[in-house]
Write a structure and sequence with these properties.
With 136 residues, the protein is an all-alpha fold. It contains seven helices and no strands.
Length: 136
């Protein structure tokens, strides 16, 4: 059930934290756990749990965590986007900016409030085939 998913996510987050703090020689294990955690969160629709964890990791205080975050970024472990999990609130552009270490401003905030209702067209829903093609 949902409770077992939440518990599994919590345990994997704990393992990533522990390995990241243990020392640089444990960073490959932490990276492997992060990979599994991300994949599992995508499969279970737990985007916010993963994204919140990753955001916390990106502002790490310790030097070991900072080095681990650099590895995770280099490996392309970014935020889970709305293209991967429909309930995610993260766009592909925001995920790209996050991995690049850039500040992200949504397009709606950049264009100002003068746009008015209905000025932006709603994105078309992607088919399952489209989503699978994006993952390949």
């Amino acid at each position: 059930g949902a409770d077992s998913v939440v518990e599994a996510v919590k345990q994997m987050r704990s393992m990533v934290d522990r390995f990241a703090e243990e020392g640089d020689e444990f960073h490959p294990k932490a990276l492997s756990c992060l990979t599994v955690l991300r994949r599992g969160c995508v499969q279970e629709g737990e985007a916010s749990a993963f994204n919140d964890f990753l955001r916390g990791l990106s502002v790490a205080a310790s030097q070991r965590r900072k080095r681990f975050w650099k590895l995770a970024r280099e490996a392309g472990h970014g935020l889970i986007t709305d293209a991967e999990v429909p309930v995610s609130t993260v766009s592909a552009e925001e995920a790209r900016a996050f991995l690049a270490g850039e500040a992200y401003t949504p397009a709606s905030a950049r264009t100002g409030a003068s746009g008015g209702a209905g000025s932006a067209e709603a994105p078309a829903a992607l088919s399952e085939r489209d989503l699978e093609a994006m993952l390949e």
